[in-house]
Amino acid sequence: MGLIIVQEMSTTSDATPKNYETLLVDRVDGVVTITFNRPKSKNAVNGAMWIELLEVLTEIQHNGADRVVVLTGAAGDFCSGADLVAMGDGKGRAHSHSYYSMREVTGVVMALARLPQPTIAKVRGVAVGVGCNIAFGCDLVVASETARFSQIFSKRGMSLDGGGSWLLPRRVGMHRAKELAFFADIISAAEADRLGLVNRVLPDTEVDAFVADWVQRLLALPPIALAQSKRLLNNSMNVTLEEALDDEGVAQTVNFSTKDTPEAIAAWIEKRNPVFKGR
After folding, report:
1. What's the rounded Cα separation, in Å, for the pair 44 and 78?
2. In the chain, what are the domain boundaries?
3. What contacts 107, CB < 8 A, 6 or more positions away?
């Protein structure tokens, strides 16, 4: 599979929070919560948000102090997709051609996929278009019973983007993926659960506590080992069994080079909870 480079990540976090135009970014004890914050448009992604998302995700990728990432939306909606006023007919568009706007989409989707940290999409309200695929691009998806999902693109004269053409067949199979893409139906959280697109569907009042519990469970796990498992699973459909086994061997070698694996073994022998440092 080629050369694998293990990069040492910073273990410090910026003590001075940055103010963003379209996002709320909150860091508490290793948890980064990114909130899409354009509630008047149901958190539609405009040019400024693409730029800010790329900046934040790239920063998280190289910050070892950031252990878990939660993506959510303000005011009861996750994300209503791309801001078509900015991207559609030139009004308010940040670029002279949509090709450049799509490069920003690509950059954000790849930055999200490259995060070694586990990511959770906490979805309320609408998650449609590219907003739907940002949610599905997270490692885990927790949805409120109020959540609604759609690959809305065909109804807007567009084809799939935001990684939907790659994500959907891997989540639901090719025929279901084509049904979702062609008809662009709005599906309920319950239907998304039935199709295997989300991990949990909960009453709205229970979503925050459930996600907070999963966050704490992830924080208690070894971050480098989690990152290795995430990489192996993400690559699993693109490699042979032999290549997967070789990659697993490399990953375990990385794990045994950390202090976390010996700590886990010692804690098991001493019948105590391990304390993982990520180094």
Report:
1. 9
2. 23-219, 223-270
3. 50, 54
Q: What's residue 270's pLDDT?
A: 97
Is the per-residue pLDDT at 93 higher than 60?
no
End-to-end CA distance of the chain: 25
Beta bridge partners of 33: 26, 70
**CA dist., res. 234 & res. 46, Å (int):** 28
Which of these, 103, 65, 83, lies nearest to 22 by C-alpha position? Answer: 83
The residues with which 45 forms a beta bridge, in sequence order, are 82
Question: Does the global pTM surpass 0.70?
Answer: yes
How would you label 230-251 residue by residue, b for 16+ Cβ within 10 Å and e otherwise?
Answer: beeeeeeeeeeeeebeebeeeb
87 pLDDT tier (thresholds 50, 70, 90): low
pLDDT in tens, 243-259: 999 999 999 999 999 99
Among all chains, which residue has been given the structure tokens 């994300």? Answer: 79
Query: Degrees (nearest 5) of the Cα angle 210, 111, 259?
Result: 70
Q: What is the CATH number of domain 223-270?
A: 1.10.12
Helix (H) / strand (E) containing 133: helix 130-136
Domain 23-219 fold: 2-enoyl-CoA Hydratase; Chain A, domain 1 (3.90.226)
Yes or no: say if 234 and 254 are a contact pair by the CB < 8 Å rule. Answer: no
- Name the region of 77 (left: φ>0; alpha: ψ -120 to 50; beta: rest): beta
Share of the chain above pLDDT 70, in %: 89
Q: How confident is the model at residue 1 (pLDDT cuts 50, 70, 90)?
A: very low
Residue type (1 letter), 95: H
